[in-house]
Amino acid sequence: MSLSRRDFLTSSAALAAIGAVSRRDLIAAWQGQPQAAAAVFTPIRRNVGFFTMRGGTIGYMINAGGVAVVDSQFPAEATACLNGLKERAGGQTVDVLLNSHHHGDHSGGNISFRGATKKVVAHAKAAEHMKNPPGAQPPADQLFPDATFTDSWTADLGDERIRAKHYGVAHTSGDAVITFERANIAHMGDLMFNQRHPVVDRAAGASLRNWMRVLDATVKDHANDTIYIFGHANANLPVTGSAADLTKFRDYIGAVLQFVEAQHKAGKSKEEILAMNAPLAGFEGFGQFGATGAREIRTCAYEEITTGR
Ligand SMILES: [Zn+2]
């Protein structure tokens, strides 16, 4: 029986934390991980939907004026996604592929879009990190972004307006929220882990404190009834949701920072803090707090608290 992706993330985070394997090995193992996941297209509203198979959730839009895709999972999954999009789009090619950030489970499939998309768009930092991922091996061959932005990027496609916006450093230093304005749907990439301990890429410029601000700014910048697509979700939880889910995740990050700070002030060492297993009060749905997946966020919290940045 193969590991679920969640178990894999959980056990791999534990291995990384004890220094048993490098981040690069983890990513390689994760990418090669066998998993019998089905390709599923789920329409949301007004020509926008999401695709799930393996890796971060892909967003898509198909209308009479064009096709847009957000993120690309891994090569085989991207090919499955492209084939399904071609069927649904009646032969239209992809006008734009956007990457929410550089991580391999969101951009590794870009290569499958070579010759199949007119354009690849990402934040300048995401594009830089795709070519030279901090703590990981550069990809041997990849379709890199050919259009980058530092603040925002907007384009009209048929009757839809697509906006990619960077709200500041958070999960990495190059995250973008991609909004389909008329459909009122926003793809969050890994700015959103639905009730699940997140990956926090401090080597690539992540900041927990600023991540909270980014979530607040995103909610303020969108309508009350915007539907958000999440990069990942805990087992049996949806990969779409509302502003309330973003706020809950922001509060969880704040609670982790508070918890780690209180333990540090009480004289606990980093290893002692990381060894505490009880789920965080009020955030039990995120799961056991100490054992595995929560080590990375607490390590990052500890470093932010002790270094002041
Ligand atoms: Zn990520």
Strand pairing plus helix content: what structural class?
Answer: alpha/beta
Report the β-strand fraction as a percent range.
15-25%
Number of strand elements: 15
What is the CATH architecture descriptor of the domain at 37-250? 4-Layer Sandwich
- Report the span from N to C terminus: 42 Å
Main β-sheet, spatial strand arrangement: 1-2-3-4-5-6-7
CATH homologous group name of the domain at 37-250: Ribonuclease Z/Hydroxyacylglutathione hydrolase-like
Whole-number average pLDDT? 89
Radius of gyration: 19 Å
- Helicity level, as a percent range? 25-40%
Topology as a string of helices (H) and strands (E): HHEEEEHEHEHEEEEEEHEEEHHH
Short key terms for the protein model shown above:
single chain, alpha/beta, 6-stranded mixed β-sheet, Metallo-beta-lactamase, Chain A, 7-stranded mixed β-sheet
